[in-house]
Amino acid sequence: MVSLFGEDDTDKRNHNMALAGFLAGTHALRILAERGIATPDDIITSNAGIIALIDMIPAGQLAPGTRDKVVEMLENIVAEARRNCTAPGERP
Questions:
Q1: For the chain, how long is the longest CA-to-CA vector?
Q2: For residues 21-46, b (16+ Cβ closer than 10 Å) or e, as one string?
Q3: Which residues of 68-82 are buried (b: 16+ CB within 10 A; e: fewer)?
Q4: Among 12-21, 49-58, 81-90, whose mean pLDDT is lowest?
Q5: Separation between Cα atoms, residue 3 and residue 62, nearest integer Å
Q6: Which is more confident, 82 or 1?
Q7: What is the dihedral of CA 10, 12, 15, 19, to 10 degrees?
Q8: CA angle (78, 32, 80) in 5-degree steps
Q9: Which of 20, 38, 53, 90 could form a disulfide with 42 if both were Cys (CB 3.0 to 4.6 A apart)?
């Protein structure tokens, strides 16, 4: 596997900042889904953007199985939105 980032301190910082941003964003989606604020369609739209960005990462620069794990995590957030959505007409 080739790292998207190099090995110097600046590259490691950039990697950590990118990971922190990704995790913060997905955590925010989970909170919105768990509180019933976001509809399943809202989460699906957000997830599509996340997956599209992941798919732009060149082959070999993600550990094997990473994309599948991320997609599974995002699908779980959609399920939370379906369970908790309070918008009219949005409950399954």
A1: 52
A2: eeeeebeebbebbeebebbbebbeeb
A3: eebeeebeebbebbe
A4: 81-90
A5: 8
A6: 82
A7: -130
A8: 30
A9: 38
